[in-house]
């Protein structure tokens, strides 16, 4: 019986491959696949971000590779960066409330 | 309605705070809290790893800070590293099967 954290890790792997297999290299996200993944899988989550440019900034960073593809490592770094940003916001709110 | 990826990201935040609030600094994991989190939340997942020393290596890396505490950023880096290792194994198996 997997734990919730293990299910979360499996979800990251599954979602990546669900989009990466659509076209070209099946183990990498093309720009189109990445955009589709962001729009469909991260819409609500990104709404809670204070920085509306966050996704654009991350996409620019990923583009720095200049191969126009995102491998699983880069994808996980992106998810980690977004999660840290959301945690920062959560902690800030908790501290404001004096909890 | 959050997506599965958003739920996965929320799970990482929730699990971290569930353990970090047990003692001392409530926004950081002490060594004891980290060990408890690894033992309770990552046991099954780690069993599928080919490298039995993986967790020890990650803990040593985290210890490099020498403050004996793990903040959320460090925790997410650890989860990301484990997820990449599991994905590598998954992709290797797929390629072996010629899929």
Structural features, described:
The structure is a homodimer of 99-residue chains. Chain A is mostly helical. Chain A has a single domain (4-96), classed as Recoverin, domain 1 (Orthogonal Bundle), CATH 1.10.238. Helix content of chain A is 69%, strand content 4%. Chain A is built from five helices and two strands, in the order H-E-H-H-H-E-H. A two-stranded antiparallel sheet of chain A has the order 1-2. Chain A is globular, with a radius of gyration of 15 Å. The first copy, chain A, starts with a helix and ends with a helix. Chain A binds chain B through residues 1-13, 15-16, 27, 40-45, 72-73, 76-77, 79-80, 82-84, 86-87, 90-91, and chain B through 1-13, 15-16, 27, 40-45, 72-73, 76-77, 79-80, 82-84, 86-87, 90-91. Chains A, B: This is Protein S100. Chains A, B: Keywords: Calcium, Metal-binding, Repeat. Chains A, B: Residues 50-85 form the EF-hand domain. Chains A, B: GO terms for molecular function: calcium ion binding; calcium-dependent protein binding.
Q: What is this structure's SSE topology?
A:
2 copies of one chain form a homodimer.
Chain A: H1 4-20, E1 29-30, H2 31-41, H3 43-47, H4 54-63, E2 69-70, H5 72-96
Antiparallel strand pairs in A: 1-2
Helix pairs in contact in A: 1-2
Summarize the biggest pleated sheet of chain A.
2 strands, antiparallel
Strand order of the largest sheet of chain A: 1-2
> In the residues of chain A, how many domains can be counted?
1
Question: What sort of overall outline of chain A do the alpha carbons produce when their principal axes are compared?
Answer: globular
Oligomer: homodimer
Can you count the helices of chain A? Answer: 5
Strand content of chain A: under 5%
Task: Give unreliable regions of chain A as ranges.
Answer: none
- Enter the CATH topology name of chain A: Recoverin, domain 1
Q: Which structural class do the helices and strands of chain A define?
A: mainly alpha
Give the overall average pLDDT of chain A. Answer: 84
Tally of extended strands of chain A? Answer: 2
């Amino acid at each position: 019986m997997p734990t919730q954290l293990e299910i979360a890790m499996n979800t990251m792997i599954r979602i990546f491959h669900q989009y990466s297999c659509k076209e070209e290299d099946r183990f990498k996200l093309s720009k189109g696949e990445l955009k589709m993944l962001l729009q469909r899988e991260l819409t609500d989550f990104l709404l809670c971000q204070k920085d509306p440019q966050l996704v654009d900034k991350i996409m620019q960073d990923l583009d720095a590779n200049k191969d126009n593809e995102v491998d699983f490592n880069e994808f996980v770094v992106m998810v980690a960066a977004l999660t840290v940003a959301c945690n920062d916001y959560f902690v800030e709110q908790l501290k404001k409330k004096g909890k």
